[in-house]
Structure formats: C-alpha cells, structure tokens
Write a structure and sequence with these properties.
about 500 residues, about 35% helix, five-stranded mixed beta barrel, 15 helices, alpha+beta
Length: about 500
Amino acid sequence: MSGNTLQEIVGHNYGKIKSLREQGIDPYPRRFQVTHAAADALKQPADTQVRCAGRVVLLRMMGKAAFAHIKDGTGKIQIYVKKDAVGEKDYETFKKFVGVGDFLGVEGKLFVTKTGELTVSVEKLTILSKSVRPLPEKWHGLTDPETRYRERSLDLISNDEVRQIFVNRARIVSGVRQVLDGDGYLEVETPVLCAQAGGASARPFVTFHNVYKNELYMRIATELPLKKLIIGGFDGVYEIGRIFRNEGVDTSHNPEFTSLEAYKAYGDYNTMAELAEKIFARCSELTGVTEVDYNGMRINLKPPFRRVYLPEIWKEKTGHDIHEVLSGKSFNREALRALAREKGVGFSDDTPSAKIFDRMFETLVQADLEQPTFVMDHPTAITPLAKCKEGDESIVERFELFVAKMELANAYTELNDPEDQKDRLLEQVRQRSEEKNAEADVLDKDFIEAMEYGMPPTGGIGIGIDRLAMLFSGKSSIREVILFPLLKPVDQPQ
C-alpha cells in the first residue's frame, strides 16, 4: 500500500481491526506472558522453548511460510511462521492482518537457520496490538530534528541511537546517585512552587494559587531549601530535580531542565571539585565513555581535571588586573564598560554590569576551555551566596567546571555569615532596581533568619544533568537528551 495516502492507510487498518473483532479476535489483548526477552532468547541453545513478544519491524511472506523480525526493548529476534506449524486458520490471520508495526506474541522452539541465525519456530502466535499508522521507511525514516522532537515515540521506534542516548542518561543519573549515596549524602525533595524565586540569577515562571490568592514562582534552583536542611542538622543532602527558568531556548538551554544540587557540611569548594571528579569517573564506568568527540573536539573525560584561577587567566586574556573592574563586592561599572569596549565586547547603555562581565568571560575565557577545566575564584558581585577569599572581599571561593567550552557545574564554599549574606542580597536588589537586571537574585528573609540560627562551613555544587548527558553522548543540542523538550507551537510563525 506504499502508493496510498496516509488517510487511506489508516482507514484500511481500522478496517482490519473491525474484521478481527468480527471474527472474535481481540486486537488489543490485556496481557501476554513473556519467558525470554529477545536478548535473553538469543543466548539460549537450539530447541529451547520460548515465549517472546515485540514489534514487527521486518516481514517477508513466502507463500506457506514467512520470516519476520520482532523487536523489544533488548533487541531483535527472527521468527519463522509456517502454515503447517501454526495451523491454516492462524496462518491466514497472520498473513492477512499482521504487518510491520504491529506487536506480536509468539511461542515456539529455537532453531538455527541455514544462514546461522537463531530463530523462533512459531507454534502459536497472538496479535498483541494492531498498529494503525505506518512506521517510517527503514532508510527514509524520521530524520528531521524538529519532527523527531515532536514525535519522540516515533523517534525512539525508528532510531536505535536515540534510544541508547536515553539509556545512557538513565545510567548517568544512577551513577550520580551511587556516588552521593556512597559518600553519605541524603537524597531529599524540596518544593517546586515557591513564595520567592531565589538561589540563582534567572527569570522565574510565575503562577497563581487560587486558594491563598497569591502569586507563586516555579523554582529556579534548589539551593536555599537545601541549605536550610544543612542548618537543620543534616551533614550532607542532595536533590536531582526539575528546575524552571523563563529564558531563551537554544542548543544548551531548555526552560525546564534537570539539575543536581548537593551540599556537604564542613566542606568547601575543593570538596565539591573532588565530588565532581568522582561523578565523572562513575559516569564513565557506567556508560563506557572515557573520550568523546564533541563539536569537532576530542575530549578526555578522565579525572583529575585542570584547575585555573580566574584572576590569573583574566589578566592573561585582558592584560588588566580583574580588581580594576571590581569595587569591593560590586562592579566598577565605568571601568568594566571601558574594558569591554577595549576588547570589542558589545553592550548597550542599559546592559547590566553582570551581563557585560558574563559576555567578556564567555568571549575571552570560556571560548578556549575545551578539555575539562575548573575555573576557580569568581567576582563577589555576581556570586551573592558564596564565601569571600580570605583577605579579598572582591573574589569568592567559587568554581565553574567547563568541558568542551560548555559549563557543566557550579560550586561554592557557601556563605554562612548572615550579616554578610543580607548585604550581598541587598546588592542584588540594587542591581535589579538600578541596573534593571531582571535576573538578579532576590532578598529571601526566611533564609537569612534560618542562617541566623547558625550554619556550619559548607561546600555546595550544582551540576546540569542534561548537559552531562549531552557530553557523554557527544550531542551538541540539549533537545537530543531531553525526551520531550519545549518546542515552539506548530502554528506560531517562524
């Protein structure tokens, strides 16, 4: 029926479903007992009795017999359906009603064909689900990225590589948990709906609660509630959760993403660097990936990773001491703008200082960070929740981990001085009001009050799970590693 329209094919298959029901055959039975997955069956010796099930992905009819491949979550196995073995009635049902895309359950003994392929000689077969829409053709299937993301079910059916990406993603998440659980961290859950959106520099999504009649925010980070748990007496906590930021969509950003945040009492940002390296090592073990080709770069993922210090690399790249663009815990706005102009980094009159600094960092520093690199020690002005370097209030103990020019992790020696914390957040409020920086952090009074009860020295880290999956799969688009990424509405103009 290759020449038929989609509407005609769908109508024809609904007709088959009707015919099956008229013959007393349920095209969608409730269950089928499987004794062997495809991969398990292929490990068995000939003459083993098996019950297998899967989607028909190849079908060759040959008069009184047929060969087909059925595929489940572990792989494919060949089946041989012979009229004399299954009986004339069942064979005619198979021949007339079963097609590529249908789910089929089979029972029979394994044998080896003349070509050496282990095959199920079918004694009994059951239609488990009659498909209505046709699958993409094998060599001309689902290849358009936008279509693949919108129709992920079909994408997974058509592309084994895509399926493997998400298997590896699951292994990565499992590996993260194994490392943290093994180090004595407690996995917890914190609220997604918040009275304030704090803990990061980002624009939140806003919603409304009908009962309390107040606005709520989708969380932009899990940092503040997790720190409250450290204050409450837990020595180590972590959460792998969904984060929501009302920001643009590009190859490395999706408004809804998955992040790990972990906090360890009595640690610092060096503790977190060691944790990050352990997580990378475990992910390599579970995925089998130690090197990866990423955007034309050959990346070695084996720890330990290089460490560079931002004040040093800033001077190397700009020829200026980083303190020239800093004024205590704030920016020296005029000096920062002058240096940006000198280095050809664009900005407008109303661009917030934090944005100008970020653009300079991305252009002059980040663009050269191919191999895994911890960039240590960042300006206090853009890091309101980290502890200052001893003797230098302009710089905090913070690192960002970059791999293949992409940020993978962000970690602090956490600020635990409530007075200093309040002053820092007030500076963020000033940036929000005076510089119109909509992504500046907010003043969370509840968090300050909690900190006033005493917070131990603490190290904290955030790791982007989606970007970790991108790296280990060698994919340069975040949409390739999120099962259902946010997409522009179909009817919205380009």
